[in-house]
Amino acid sequence: MAEEGRLLGFVRAMTCLVQVVGADEAQLLAGAAPLMRALVAQDDWLPEAMAQPHPQHYQQHLLYGDPLDRFSLVSFVWGPGQQTPVHDHTVWGIVAMLRGRECSQRFGRDADGRIAAQGEEHALAPGELEILSPAQGDVHQVRNALPDRTSISIHLYGGNIGRIARHVFVPGTGETKPFVSRYSNALVPNLWAGASA
Question: pTM surpassing 0.90?
Answer without folding.
Answer: yes
